[in-house]
């Protein structure tokens, strides 16, 4: 089941069915995320996000007691908030480590304020 090719000027909406077909073709090894993104004018991040969401939904569907949609959303929000926290900590560490290498105090102050 391959994703239908698009001719130039033939813009199709990315319905759930089309996204699923694209993700399945990637999972089957028929194409890569990078190739699919290039071929369809998408970003690799979009394609990877679709793949991640697809696999997450599949995992939930195979649970003996599937979580409802709200619980899945809440779990994803919690995961993303944790990731944001990690990234903020990483950024703070990098800012602190960069201070000795900054050429002037005004630039150092700018980094502290952001």
Structure characterization notes:
The protein is mostly helical and 114 residues long.
Please render the helix and strand layout as text:
Elements: H1 16-27, H2 33-40, H3 44-61, H4 69-98, H5 105-113
Helix pairs in contact: 1-3, 2-3
Please tell me how large the radius of gyration is.
Answer: 21 Å
* Largest sheet report: none
Topology pattern, helix = H, strand = E: HHHHH
Spans with pLDDT under 50 lasting ≥5 residues? 6-10
Number of alpha- plus pi-helical segments: 5
Termini separation comes to 48 Å
- Give the overall shape, derived from the CA principal axes: flat
Structural class: mainly alpha
Average pLDDT number: 84
What is the helix content?
Answer: 55-70%
Strand content: under 5%
Count of beta strands: 0
What keyword list fits this structure?
single chain, 114 residues, mainly alpha
Gist of the model:
By secondary structure, the protein is an all-alpha fold. The protein contains five helices and no strands.
